[in-house]
Amino acid sequence: MTETTSPGAGLTDAPFDDNLTEVDVARVAATLRATFRSGRTRSAQWRSDQLNRLAQMMVDNEQEIIDALSNDLGRDPFESWFTDIAGTVAEARYAAKHVKRWMRRDRHLLELPQLPGRGWIEYEPYGTVLVIGAWNLPFLLSLGPVICALAAGNTVVLKPSELSSRSSKLMAELVPRYLDHDAVAVVEGGREISELLLAQGFDKVCFTGGTETGRKIMAAAAKHLTPVTLELGGKSPVLLADDCNVDVAAGRVAWTKLINSGQVCVAPDYVLAHRDVAERFVDKVCDAWVRYRTDQPKGMRIVNLHHVERLAGYLTRTRGDVVFGGGVDTAALTVEPTVVVHPDSSEPLMTEEIFGPILPVLTVDSLDDAIDFVNARPKPLAAYLFSESRKVRNRVVSEVSAGGMLVNHVAFQASTTRLPFGGVGNSGIGAYHGHWGFEEFSHAKTVMTKPTRPDLSAMLYPPYSDKAWKLARKLF
Ligand code: TXE
């Protein structure tokens, strides 16, 4: 692991200017709006150039980014590269390559009564977009939405999370060096700054974070009727059918549950294992965690004391059996990878999003029970199924509602540019990545053109005659 400074250091030496005022924030917004009005962000050339620069920024500063993530989150360098760096670069390069095509008019043939005429969708940038980033994958979940906003031709204010303050500071340093600084601004700060920004009435807001904060963001945006994209969390279940490949399921769940110490919105939250495979699955997860972490300290770094205490609270209040781990070190800000079997479905471990390296495993008697369990709760951001059967897969895909679904693996559905990523219900509104990101940050403007000759609509002008009635009934 790259050497880290003391846990939580990023929290105490907050690098951002707490004295930003409404006037400063308004000035930033005014600059970005003026740039948007100048029209320069609309060309395909400007967009792809900015996107390529953003990708280059991530490549040129790989070590600085890894160091910032190590400081903020105690993250392993490989994981930092794999999640925040590679994912952001891929998204930016893909958008740079395709944006010209995405911008093309989407023409549609009109129905007979609308002829002569032509119709199309013109993808128009909203204007100036506010992106409020998350702390868990600070680069990916801040710059990912920025990429989509730029691809759509907007100017952008990015407010990275104050909880990952080194990453926030690094973005504030790098973004103006690489990107058009009159079109993309980084404003650092906490809740007060987010509130000041929201009060500016941007043309679009994208927030990534918890469901409760998402509600507040949406309420603040509603005052200006600002459209929102909310990438929230939820409890993403893993369903293990009786025919699943237990070895593979255990290896994949064990790995993905530990990435970023489980602080990932699409991490497996809990497991519903069929009675026939539950015990074997738990044994294999425990084995895998022993194997994966031979050279590591037992505990896994959590972002701050509040979240360590939150996780510790889940463990002290559980009525399940802790069969692996369970240790919490508040001074070191760590929680051990932990398996809890048979927790009560009404305890906090099973009602709150865990967002940490704790894996509850519940046993179910049938697929019906598993599906009913998931559907009786708020819709998750992701649902996972391990099964070898196409019939089982089709049932779960059609009967379980979730932002996204992945069969026989975990989390990978969120890291492709070829499919949309987003929640449903409590887990979010809207979706992005690749082409869907371009659409999410564009207004799909309806455009129709009509020739002035022949002027067929003159036949319908008032005073309305019987002839006009008859004609209208035939046509429409
Ligand atoms: O707050 P949040 P937290 C989940 C995870 C975690 C929970 C809470 O379960 O335990 O959310 O996370 C700004 N008006 N996820 O405590 O919700 C604030 O400045 C405007 C899922 O970290 O992330 C900060 O930037 N802004 C997840 C951010 O919101 C406000 C990623 C912190 O909110 C505000 C992270 C207000 N009233 C956590 N209040 C994912 N989906 O990936 C706060 N903020």
UniProtKB/TrEMBL annotation:
Annotated active site: 231
Keyword list, A-Z: Oxidoreductase
InterPro entries: Ald_DH_CS_CYS, Ald_DH_CS_GLU, Aldehyde_DH_dom, Aldehyde_DH_NAD(P)
CDD domains: ALDH_F3-13-14_CALDH-like (cd07087)
Residue ranges of domain Aldehyde dehydrogenase in the record: 20-447
Tree of life domain: Bacteria
Similarity remark: Belongs to the aldehyde dehydrogenase family.
Protein name as catalogued: Aldehyde dehydrogenase
Lineage: Bacteria, Bacillati, Actinomycetota, Actinomycetes, Mycobacteriales
